[in-house]
Amino acid sequence: MIFKKTPSLLSVCAFFALIFCSACINDAKTPDEPAVIEKASIDRDLFYHYSIWYAFVNKVFEGDLTVSKLKTKGDIGLGSYTKLDGELIMLDGIPYRATEDGHVSIAKGADKIVYVNTTFFDEDLSFKITNTINYDSLRVEINKQLPSKNMFYAFKIHGKFKNIKCGGLNKQEPPFKEGLDVLIPNRPIFKAEEIEGTMVGFYCPKFIGDINVAGYHLHFISDDKKFGGHVMEFSAESLNVSIDEMYEYQFVLPNTDAYRHVGFDKQFQYKKD
User: Fold this and answer.
1) What is the mean pLDDT of residues 62-79?
2) What is the predicted pLDDT for the residue at 25?
3) Phi-psi category of 230—alpha, beta or left, where left has phi over 0 and alpha has psi -120 to 50?
4) Between 20 and 30 A from 64 (CA), which of 18, 173, 248, 253?
5) DSSP characters over 37-58
6) In this model, does residue 14 exceed pLDDT 90?
7) What's the CA gap between 145 and 151, in Å, rounded?
8) What domain of life does the UniProt record list for this protein's source (predicted)?
9) Is the dihedral of CA 184, 117, 228, 85 positive or negative?
């Protein structure tokens, strides 16, 4: 003999209540409303900047931004690793480190950054230079192309370089005694000839003041990923210049004791307008 359990009145009422609530929810949705809420899309016109420039100048050499988080903020960038342990050059989402001995490697996700500029690069305009050009004349040519010098711009500039001079920084250990006003004029310098590679960087309007580097700031990574650093001088045979215009700017302050107590006594700016 087979016995079947008869549903109780309570369970039957609960079943119909569930159907009624589901119908109310469906009626409340507009016809074009997605069933699942989509994640917010990445803002690709955002210039992300970690650590105010004058904190970096004034011996705030340890940061709390990781490489893993940096990669969620952009796919090109430049800056410096914590304790000045290498120049940061990010190209196509890969964060390279050029250390004081000239060695180039790929940074690990847990590595910390003390200062960085980054964005997701989308080309808005481009042009080619086929005659010999140096850093000064490159800035002149880019200035001719910029729609406005009141906006922010990111650059990917690939080419063949007759020669290039790049700078690094000597790694520091706490307690930090010297700021960038002393370290940069005495920085290690690396030179290369007949080399191909990419300069990545940014332009900030003069009104940026002491928050960031005003004017042009470029870092270089060779195609073979064996040479890189902060661009000081160069002579190039030809260049392909790609430009991304940005109209949103975000800067994030280090959440560290060193930043909270720093005094902005020293002044230093690159002269690259």
Assistant:
1) 97
2) 41
3) beta
4) 248
5) PPPPPP-TTEEEEES-HHHHHT
6) no
7) 13
8) Bacteria
9) positive
